[in-house]
Amino acid sequence: MTRMAVLSAGLGVPSSTRLLADRLAEATVQGLAARGVTRAEVGVDVVELRALAHPLADRLVTGFPDATLEAAIAAVTGADALVAVTPVFSASYSGLFKTFFDVLEPGAIAGLPVLMGATAGTARHSLVLEHAVRPLFSYLRATPVPTGVFAATEDFGDGALQERVERAGGELAAAVLARRAAARPEAVVRPGGLHAVPSSVADDAHAATSLPFEELLRRAGG
Fold it and tell me: Which of 57, 108, 181, 222 could be stapled to 104 by a disulfide with Cβ–Cβ 3.0 to 4.6 Å?
């Protein structure tokens, strides 16, 4: 089972932040399906930070999470992929969004593929993903995919937004499979999903990378 956590820091009900998060999650599910992972093999855990505002504040003060916050943290840190979407406050991510990542243990999401999203009332905030959100995930040693998706109010209903959503979802799906393949040296990612590599090929590749540099040069020179 592939687990995907969807983190939304929207404050309204409903919220454009949650709407974008859902669209990104669906695009990722479709991207996985195109690569051989069926919808039935993907589990999606939605974490609404709005409901965790008080537990997060208590965690900062007391150092202990309550059961609800603990479950949300487990959903994110145990996921194979993370979709994380924040509204823009004062030209950056929201305090609620940042607080969630402040309470994680160091290294908790290291290597985790992340699809970043942000929403705002105006396109003037469109660079927030690159100047604020991406550096945050880089500091946390997560692996954000190349395409982040920003959506201003007027972008919803625009076909260009959906194109970005689908591209980003495909990138996250590919990153999930690539990470899984990296954890299994005997497999490679090709169109259609994971494919086994004969053990002899894997052994030869491992042996080659284990040789001293001088020996590799000697072999290359014949």
Answer: 108
Q: Any residues with CB less than 8 A from the CB of 63 and at least 6 apart, and which?
A: none
CB 98 within 8 A of CB 128: no
The token pair at 102 is 């402040």
CA dihedral 77, 74, 60, 46 (to 10 degrees): 90
Q: How far apart are CA 199 and CA 58, in angstroms?
A: 51
